[in-house]
Design brief:
36 strands, alpha+beta, single chain, globular, five-stranded antiparallel β-sheet
Length: about 650
Amino acid sequence: MTKQFWNIDSNVLLWKAKESEVHFDDIEMSGLYADFWVRYGKNESGTLELDYKCYYPTLRTIPNNTHATYCNEIKNSFRPYLLKNGEAVTEYIREFAFDGTLMVYCDTNEGFSTERCLFPASDSRCCIELITIRATEDVELELSHPACSVHSYGRGTKGVYVSRILTDACDGIRLEAGSEITFGIYYSTEPANEIAIIPDGRAELEKRTERICELCDGSLILDSGNKILDTMTRYSKLRAGESVFETITGKYHSPGGHAYYAAIWCNDEAEYAGPYFALTGDKTAIEASINAYHAYIPFMSDSYTRLPSSIIAEGLDIWEGAGDRGDAAMYLYGCSLFCLYLGDEKVARGLWNAIKWCAEYCERMKTPEGVIRSDADELEGRFPTDRYANLSTSSLCYGGLINAAKLARSLGEYDTAEIYEKRASELATAIEDYFGAELHGYNTYRYSKGFDTLRAWICLPLCMGIDKRADETLDAMLSEYLWTEEGMLTCERSAENTSDTIWDRSTLYGMKCAFLSGAGDRMMQPLLDYCRKRLLCDRIPYPVEAYPEGDKRHLSGESALFVRVVTEGLFGIRPESLDSFSFIASVPEGLKRLYLNAVYISGSCFDIHIDKDRFEVFENGVSVLCGITDGSRITVNKQ
């Protein structure tokens, strides 16, 4: 079992470093104009190591492509450090803590201890390090950097970029025994014609704390009686919601992870994050989702050519090197689900033509066998498949048609609803006929014709409500061919695939489908094991993108998917119209209860409380429905 470094203390994650313990990890934190990546840890000598990368999504480099976000890198050897009598002070790590800011506690042999608080500014191009020094004896110290020093220069589309290290520390730091002082170090980058301004570090910390509270405690508050599951959900909400950047064309959610800023994708933003954000009621996140959906509309012409693989560079350029990844199916599914969850008719009507365009595009991509053709899926051909049809695109199209039909009825377009329902029914049959297969004795799905190896995405039909092969598909998912300590292999090992790569996105979809299929008792322990590993062990505290590829980057879309394991999996929440939703009244073995407070759906705020014997639903604080917990699907109509 993977070693556990961290523990939970009142929603705060703590790593109390043992004397012989050597460990390093990294964390990403995001504000509207700055993304702060911190590598932290304790080396063999017990001393602190910190490396920083400060990303500024609106400062674009040349060429202004997907990865052209300007980065100011500050290695451990160059970051500002404390001097005593002209010599660098050695700091011995005692403890790390994370609550949405990274806290670092160190001792020294020089009569004082240090406490660092690291976080990005909320609404400026600045990453911040607040340092508190607590003296146990009289000390005189200096900082290795002056109040304002240029660290590096860069060049990009907006001019010469000047990266500075600023501080509000005094030239000489003098402390009496028992006293303390706090000062800030600020890592700022501006075009050469802009003036560097030292912010108020304490005020910035207050703003960061407020945003953390909004994202973690403002909605979708889980109380399952299991501290690890509840805390994993809390931090997933933070990572999903913080990664929104202000750009020249508006706010956009972006994955992050050193590479993906001020840009949007039909999987990460349209399919994963958008439906989740609708449930949060968070105005910033919802605005970013609406912007993302609208950004694709100029590409929806009567010629019905493919959507771009991504919209990049603050919405001013595109990348389409992956061809058709099934992006229209992703958009159809995600946007229709977003509109239904949000329950805002005006927003839905503003996006309705785009949803219909995607449905028509998919219809035009229908093969003679009745499935939906695409060049690849969101993994862009990394694993064996063909360029004719894959299970992912057809499954997402099916789910999108079901959602679009519900939305059509809510908007009074009953004929369109019937058309979409008919197409969905025909597509479900085609998926069974074309992709249905027996693999390793399991009556499940092949991913594409000619590649008879198990793939993690066999879970997608179940997630969309096609459950004919549910039991044996779950058996295949949890078999030695796919399931590992890290989650599901993306593809079983074979002559065509020798990789042990995992992508959390498919594992999370797989967990969701297990609960939706009535197999929650089988998936509960794997889910809890996953939460422990991701939250408390060697790579904390979020779901990851992929490994070995990507080196377990904390892309934010995966965190949105994790919360949807809770909302759509454990609770079985799904929209039925703009004014109604349903959930499944059950509590899996291993959990005491399932309470989810502040669910923003259909324009109201709901609390859903499910105990072992009964459930109760509250709308805006008023009880509106109660009953017996018997595994039934319960429909809730907005009052």
